[in-house]
Amino acid sequence: MSEVLQEIQKKLVFPIDFASQRRLDRSVYLCLMIGTVVSCFIGLFTQSLFNLVVSFGLTFCVCLALGLPSYPAYNKQRLEWVKPKISH
Amino acid sequence: MFSLSQRFQQTSNQALSFAIFAAAFVVATFCAQLYQDNVFGLSSSIGNIQPQINVRTSRFYGSVNGRPKENLKISFDLESDLTPLFNWNTKQIFVYLTAEYNGLKKPSVKSEVTLWDSIITDKEGAVISLNNAKSKYSVWDIEEKLSDRNLTFKLHWNIQPWIGPLVYGETNGESPVTLPQTKPKSQSARTSKRSEAV
User: What is the pTM of this model?
Assistant: First the structure.
């Protein structure tokens, strides 16, 4: 059973390259920060905590949609592994 | 950020950190709005207080070993506008009318009892206008007698917010009342018999 789970886990990795990781980290942080500030002001000006929670939830969903899938654009700079030299 | 699960974890953790910031922002603006609306200077008018003292011998009314215990009930008028207590973080308000008095045996000890309370859940219900309302609770003191004491009635409020700590306060407008002296039962019975005879 655990072997089956390990196989599934291996298939669910969806890796992205190093440059995209760095870029994504910054953009998700920025998106969340701006989204939080905007949500706070939306809530304050409409005097509604519900609006704050909804806009913050939307921000979180946008960040997940931005970061979770392994888009082809995130895998353009894949590392080229050094090929082993076989000497006879 | 390499795998799907790592990206999900990192995004969730960052979102949680920002959610804490948002909660702090809500609490700060909530408190600022309360001060701006001057909620700690709200006024109330408590009038037409009619105290009624009953002597009870039930243990459910504070009596110990069948010894009579004086219980107080009142009727009162109350006017107050508590709408400034409602802003975007207010869930509900708990309003309660209390009476404060000094002890007879220990005059330095102050006691406070709640006679009436109410929960207000929306801004429309925050304008209180009660006429000849009855107290909800029958109250008694730890000492036997409650009569002949000076009571100060005050209206307190307590905001229960969605996020953040409870906020307590009281309105301006105290009403002092002196409770009447109760006559012993035998004496009042005798006087009524005498009046019947006459």
Answer: 0.82
